[in-house]
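Notes to self after the call with IL:
- keep both proteins in one doc
- input above output, always
- annotate only the second one for now

Protein 1:
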Amino acid sequence: MNKGSEWYQDEIRVTQELGVKHHDYGISANRDVSDEDLNAILGIIRAAPKPLLVHCKSGADRTSLIAAMYLYSFEGRSPDDAAGQLSILQGHFPFFGNSTAAMDRTFWRYVQSHPLLH
């Protein structure tokens, strides 16, 4: 996490000033995320006041994964539709051996092991 960085300290200060609930959950964009971590993040999202802002340092890979997870898990979107969050249009670039492909693997593994019942 970025607890010592100036932008992070500014973010904490502003959320406190505005009375906004802040949650941190550290995951790497370069490693597959465990189901345990995904379920913990989904639990935070479920319980958090709305509207909700999700972001990571770069705002592309981890944010895209969690946006895809939200659409799939809470809105019941199809896996292909939800996976659209993991696209170059969202700033996610998992090509040419880029280690952020871990976000794509994580999403599709989760979908395979947690099919939605419609």
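Protein 2 (the one to annotate):
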Amino acid sequence: MDKIGVCGDNCSLCPRYITSGRINLERLKEVAVLWKKAGFRDKIVSPEDLACFGCSPKNNCAYHRQMDCAAGKKLHNCGECADYPCGVVLEGFEKTRSHMEKCRKNCGAEDYSVLDKAFFRKEEYLDMIHNKKFKK
């Protein structure tokens, strides 16, 4: 089963998460360049600043409002919440959509495909989790 983050990212497919788990600093440098090119960061950051070991307040995460809410409710992700989709989640979806076009324009087809499966399908992944939990 895939590891789905609080916001709906598929961590199992995320180059940042995968590379951090292997503690591969050279690959994290490459991922940092991709993150800037895709529009996820304004500048190239150090491998240590980019590293991600899963949803945690320690991570430099763009979806911290969702993370704080889910942590307060003791949920693994927003799809497990009875209030899904709330305004905070919808803001997260909009933030993600805002990156799609820049990513499509600036990244090659292979990189875009990886990022699409890892990040741009948040709503699909969270819907599946929510529907399964609440039997819709």
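Annotation: The CA atoms of residues 10 and 118 lie 5 Å apart. The radius of gyration is 15 Å.
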